[in-house]
Structures are given as C-alpha cells and as structure tokens.
Amino acid sequence: MTRTVFFVSDSTALTAEMLGHSLLTQFSGNHFHEMTIPFVNTPERADEAAKTIREQSANDDRRPIVISTLIDPALRLHERIPEALHLDLFDTFIDTLEHELEQKASHRAGAAHAITDINEYMDRMEAVNFTMNHDDGVHPRDLAEADIILLGVSRSGKTPTCLYMALQFGVKAANYPLTEEDFAIQGLPKILQPWRKKLFGLTIDPERLAQIRRERAPNSRYATPENCRFEVEESEALMRHNSIPHLDTTTLSVEELATTILHRTGLKRHGFS
Question: What structural domains does the chain harbor?
C-alpha cells in the first residue's frame, strides 16, 4: 500500500525531510510517495500547499501524512486540511521549551539553516571548494592543507563522502584512487607517504563494486567481478600492511560514513549538520 507523505516547511524543508525520514524508516512494511513543499512563508503559499494536499488526498482516496516545520502559527495547516494527518515537529517542542527556558521562541522562519555565523559559513564553503579541487588527488601539491585524505579503489564512495564532510562539517577532504600501479609497489604511493597520519581507507564488497561499475562502464574489464575482487583484495592488503584505518562502505549511507570517520579520527566539526 502506498501512502503519500508531504514534507512542508517555511524554509528549505531539510529539517522536515531529515526528521520525517527518520520516523518513516520505522515502518518498513509501507511504501511512501514523498512530496516536498518548501518556502510556505505567506498565507497565500499556505493556501496553495493546502490545495495541493487536499487534491492528493482525493486522488489517493486515503488521507496523506503531513510532516511540517512551520514556525508561524498563522501558517500551520491543521485547520486548513482536516483530510490529512498532521505531524507538526516544531509545534511538538516549542511550547515545552518556552516553558522550561522561561523565554518566548523567536518564531523566525528558516533559522535552522540561516547563515548565523559568516566565518563558519565561509569555512564550510572553502572546504567544499578544496574538496572539489582535490577529487581523485588532482592537486597533490596542496595535500598539506587537507584535514583528511580518503583512499580506496574507484567507485568505493570516496567522492560523495568527501563532499558530505566538507559541506556538513567544514572538513577539507581530499581523496586518492588506488590503482594497479599502486598495488604493484606493495607500499604507500610516494605522494601519500608524507601524509600517512591523514589517511583513511574505504573498501567495499566486490560484488557491489562490480554492480556500481557496470552502470558506469558496462562490458568493460573495469567492471568485471574478477577485476573488482582483485582490486578490493589488493587495496585492503595495502591498508593493513600500512596500518591505515579503513571502513567498509557497502551497507553504510554517506551520512553514516562521514560521521563514523569523524568519530574514529577525532576530526573537529567546523559546521552543523
């Protein structure tokens, strides 16, 4: 059975989506059709959102679920849409916190994702630029600036993990792709030797790696199970031989990978997720 879920927000809807997904994953027997309505920050936008949700309810012949983070009480959708189940995440906690802190909330839309510290924001943007410029080790002369260097075989998850750490945590992350040339020397590539303490390895199940590579380069030696198995075995041997901490990416999301790496390395978060 498919159930429509709306994520509604007066800003980007990132908070509604993040918390909403956490709730929905507890109900694995259901299929959810997810729709996002951001920037509901005027009465007119609230009316438009209400109309969209009512129409979907009529089409589905069952009431949709609305997960919202609308901070302005005048914009909340409870009274506008009796045909939906409403989960207002801010309404659940704001009153309780106001009572405990003996202070009224600001009720400022978009505060969770606003630029409140310009220096922190600029640090994160600098980290993103650094990471994009150092994807696959393209500027090795600047690796001294890196907070961390991820290494692993091609398509093992290095790039998305680096970008997530940069954007969410302000970490300058470079990455280095291990190839057959690196396996032949049975040691660390020369370019990485000065930065041994910054290295962290990623590995992956060979069958999953072959599946990912086939989508990129079907019918190639690069994507064969035999080659993938060889590369993974050699990369793991190189990491063990050089005492490089490493992590299997096969079943982990990029959020889990980044958080685990930061926890294991003790890297400081420069921003907030």
Answer: 2-113 (3.40.50), 118-265 (3.40.50)
